[in-house]
Amino acid sequence: MNNLAGLDYDERGAGEVVCLVHAGVFSAWFAPLFEQPALDGFRVIRPIRPGYGPSPAPSEPSSIAAHARRCGELLRGLGVTRAHWVGHSSSCCIGLQLALDDPGLVASLILFEPAKPSGKQREAAASSYVGPALAAAAQGDVARAFEVFTRGVGGDRDQQVLRARLGDDGLAEAERESAYFFAEELPAVGAWTFGPTEAARVAAPALLLCGAQSRPWFRENTAILADMLPDARIQTLPELDHLAPLTHPAELASTIGDFVRHPAATPS
Fold it and tell me: Is pLDDT of 258 > 90?
């Protein structure tokens, strides 16, 4: 693990830059993806965002814009002038914000199941897991909040997948990290504004990925965002769901590599 200006990150390889920015809840989402052979030939950078892992919690109030700025500062500090942003859930929002704030830095957006915008399924998601998880966290029961939220996004097999991929120690660390997510990042996602006006300003081409087995609100979010962005296409991945960065990293890495190398050939 490397550190620049107080931000931890992993890095490997050389070539076009692929920046893997983890989702909320915990920082290990993209750890399996980082090692995939399909990303050989790229300079792969995996930041650990403030508030997660060994990176200290931000001193400023958490916001999507603040996370975007810190990731942009890391890339610029590493001498990167153009990067392909790979996001997952809430980090899709961060990538979209960076594309607005520093458009020259974002070569493309590869976004797996964005957390926003939400449509008709928003209330279903809020009532089934977002609200109950926030309520548990507010009562100091982070373990319960973690369990409710991960089941909400990943289904009944979530704990089995997390333990298998992260190990017992990694699962305990993920639960510990989630305290920051519930206290700071999840409210920041709720407060973040992104609609057709903002979307029209995103110049970077976008590949929006969605698992065919994912919850309906993720599929709906992906479709809404695709309709708003000027240059976007959707690719649905069979058999995958929101836990795909942990369960199917090789398939995701292959899809990412194909898009970065041949963006015009990616199927919709």
Answer: yes
**Residue-range domains of the chain with CATH:** 2-121+193-265 (3.40.50.1820)
Neighbour order of strands in the sheet with 206-211: 2-4, 7-12, 43-48, 17-21, 83-88, 106-112, 206-211, 232-237
Q: What is the number of H-type helices and E-type strands within the chain?
A: 12, 8
Q: Note whether 75 and 45 are within 8 A (CB).
A: yes
Q: Is the whole-model pTM more than 0.85?
A: yes
Q: What is the pLDDT of residues 117-166, one digit of tens each?
A: 676 666 767 777 888 999 999 999 999 999 999 988 887 778 888 999 99
SS3 44: strand
Write the CA distances from 132 to 2, 128, 129, 137, 231, integer angstroms: 36, 7, 5, 9, 36
